[in-house]
Design brief:
Phosphorylase Kinase, domain 1; about 260 residues
Length: about 260
C-alpha cells in the first residue's frame, strides 16, 4: 500500500516514494519525510507534540555528540493534523543504520524512558480509549486471561502480584525501531505508547530481539526470577496475543528459562 495523492499533497512531499526496509515493510520515504500507515489519530494528537518537543530538546542539548539519544521528529501535515488518512510522517534520518545490538537497544530504551518520565508525568486519557489489538493484548497480559495447558495459559498461570515498578509512558516496540546515526548515537523511531513499568517495556525489547534480531536467547536467563520474570511473562503474553500468527514453537524455545 502506498500513500495517496492526498496524503502526499498534505505532507508536501513528492510522489516518487521509496519503500523502506524494516518494521512491517509499509513505510516509505518521500522527499525528506518518512510516511508510515496505520497511525492512530487520537494517539498522535497528544503523543507527537510531546515527541517533537523532546526531539528538539535533545538536538539542542549541550554536548550534542555526547548525549547518546535522538528521536526521529514527527512532522505535521500542512493542515496542522498529525495523521492523514491513517498516514503519519517523521523526519528522514540520512546516514543512519539499523541497530540490532541488544545492549545498545536496552541502553537506548532506558535513556528514552528517563526522558519520557519527565516529559509526560501523568497518564494520557487517550491511552485508555485504545481498542487496537496491541492495546487489547497489553491489557490482557496484565489483567486478564485464565490459566490453561497451552502456552498462553501456562504463562498466565505464572503471573503473581510481584511489583514491577511504577507505571509511566514507555515505548512498547523498541527492538527494530532504533537506528544509529553517523556519530553512533541512537535514533528512536515509531514510539508505540503504553502506560506500564519500564521493566516490562525492556522485557518486550529483549524478547523481540531474541525472537527476530538474532540476540542470544540465553539473555532470557536473567529474566527467570522475581520481578524480572513477571515482566517477561507479561511481555510474552503481550506478543503472543497481539501477533496474528505467532510461531509457538519458537516462543517455547526462547522462553524456556522463564517457563521452568
Amino acid at each position: 500500500m502506498l500513500p495517496s495523492e492526498r496524503v502526499l499533497d498534505l505532507f508536501a512531499v513528492p510522489g516518487d516514494v521509496q519503500p523502506l526496509p524494516g518494521g512491517q515493510g509499509a513505510s516509505v520515504r518521500a522527499g525528506d519525510l518518512v510516511l508510515s500507515p496505520g497511525r492512530d489519530a487520537a494517539v498522535c494528537a497528544w503523543l507527537n507534540p510531546v515527541l517533537a518537543r523532546l526531539a528538539v530538546r535533545l538536538d539542542e542539548r549541550p554536548g550534542r555528540s555526547q548525549r547518546g539519544l535522538r528521536i526521529a521528529m514527527p512532522v505535521p501535515a500542512r493542515d496542522g493534523e498529525w495523521v492523514v488518512d491513517g498516514w503519519g510522517a517523521s523526519r528522514w534520518e540520512p546516514g543512519t543504520t539499523s541497530c540490532s545490538e541488544l545492549d545498545v537497544l536496552v541502553a537506548s530504551g532506558r535513556l528514552l524512558h528517563a526522558e519520557l518520565a519527565d516529559a509526560v508525568p501523568s497518564r494520557p486519557e487517550s491511552l485508555s480509549r485504545r481498542e487496537d489489538r496491541w492495546a487489547q493484548a497489553e491489557r490482557a497480559a496484565f489483567d486478564g486471561l485464565p490459566s490453561g495447558a497451552d502456552l498462553v495459559g501456562r504463562l498466565a498461570d505464572l503471573r503473581d502480584d510481584t511489583p514491577l515498578g511504577p507505571d509511566q509512558l514507555v515505548h512498547a516496540d523498541l527492538a527494530g525501531n532504533v537506528l544509529l546515526d553517523a556519530a553512533g548515537a541512537p535514533v528512536i523511531l515509531d514510539v508505540s505508547p503504553a502506560w506500564r513499568p519500564p521493566r516490562w517495556a525492556e522485557a518486550v525489547c529483549i524478547l523481540d530481539a531474541a525472537m527476530w534480531l538474532g540476540a542470544p536467547a540465553a539473555r532470557l536467563r536473567d529474566w527467570a526470577g522475581g520481578a524480572a520474570r513477571q515482566a517477561m511473562v507479561r511481555a510474552a503474553l503481550f506478543r503472543l496475543l497481539s501477533d496474528t500468527d505467532p510461531p509457538l514453537d519458537r516462543y517455547e524455545d526462547v522462553l524456556a528459562p522463564v517457563l521452568c
